[in-house]
């Protein structure tokens, strides 16, 4: 059984129509799983379903073998989920360091070692630790957001479009850091617009279309699939 399984998830927002239809997403220890698909396909919705922010009326979410389907997002953080949402993922009027401290709010132990680890991963954040996060570049803000999630010492990291709006060079750098985090054994579930590049580093890939699994396989398999290439990867 994979470390995280969102199994046959069907549901939507409040009393609105279903957005997800029997959607299944998995990621195991040491893996990077990537969700790709067109705008509005339900990628963020699938992440929110896994994180407990959606009214999932059928399906099950398992974390480390435990059924967590009915837990609140807060309780899922306590269980080890770290989630970086697509938007509003940092406090712009707080300093970089305050953002990291806020990330650790659920911890009662000493957080200084984890903060050093985040600064080792993203040295620019150490340099800018006293600056308002809102003054940073797009790529640096994403580093703050990822760092903030790492401050809880999660057992699973979920990233919704970590490279949105950054240049190709910054994107490559962010992917390298994400691979580095993954090599520590932390499973990573990530939504990406840069589908080709993301699938290149993906152990597992999911193409979502209209809230349902359209294609899944290893990153390599999806990159080699003519249908996936033609419809989702620009040929
Ligand atoms: N808070 C919400 N309330 C109601 N409907 C929503 C909400 N958020 C998203 N939706 C709807 O759910 C569907 C899927 O949206 P979602 O944001 O999951 O897509 P996405 O694949 O993440 O798209 P993008 O690539 O633009 O980020 C869309 O039809 C959207 O309008
Ligand atoms: Mg989205």
TrEMBL record:
Residues annotated as domain ABC transporter: 4-235
PROSITE patterns: ABC_TRANSPORTER_2
One annotated GO biological process: L-amino acid transport
Keywords of the record: Amino-acid transport, ATP-binding, Nucleotide-binding, Transport
SMART domains the record matches: AAA
Entry's Gene Ontology molecular function annotations: ATP binding; ATP hydrolysis activity; branched-chain amino acid transmembrane transporter activity
Statement: the UniProt record of this protein carries the keyword ATP-binding: yes
Keyword flag Lipid metabolism: no
One Pfam family this sequence matches: ABC_tran
Family designation: Belongs to the ABC transporter superfamily.
Identification of the protein by name: LIV-I protein F
Naturally occurring in which organism (per UniProt): Shimia thalassica
């Amino acid at each position: 059984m994979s470390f995280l399984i969102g199994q046959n998830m069907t549901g939507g927002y409040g009393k609105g129509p279903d957005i997800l239809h029997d959607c299944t997403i998995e990621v195991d220890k040491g893996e990077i799983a990537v969700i790709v698909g067109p705008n509005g396909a339900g990628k963020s919705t699938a992440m929110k379903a896994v994180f407990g922010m959606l009214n999932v009326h059928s399906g099950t979410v398992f974390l480390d073998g435990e059924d967590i389907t009915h837990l609140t997002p807060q309780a899922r953080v306590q269980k080890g989920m770290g989630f970086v949402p697509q938007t509003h993922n940092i406090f712009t009027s707080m300093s970089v360091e305050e953002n990291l401290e806020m990330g650790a709010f659920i911890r009662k132990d000493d957080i200084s070692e984890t903060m050093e680890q985040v600064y080792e991963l993203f040295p620019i954040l150490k340099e800018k630790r006293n600056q308002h996060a809102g003054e940073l570049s797009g790529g640096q803000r994403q580093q703050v957001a990822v760092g903030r999630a790492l401050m809880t010492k999660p057992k699973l990291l979920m990233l919704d479009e970590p490279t949105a709006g950054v240049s190709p060079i910054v994107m490559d750098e962010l992917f390298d850091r994400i691979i580095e985090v993954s090599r520590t054994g932390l499973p990573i579930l990530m939504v990406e617009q840069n589908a080709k590049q993301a699938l290149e580093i993906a152990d597992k890939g999911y193409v979502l279309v209209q809230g349902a699994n359209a294609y899944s396989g290893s990153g390599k398999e999806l990159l080699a699939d003519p249908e996936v290439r033609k419809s989702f990867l620009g040929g």
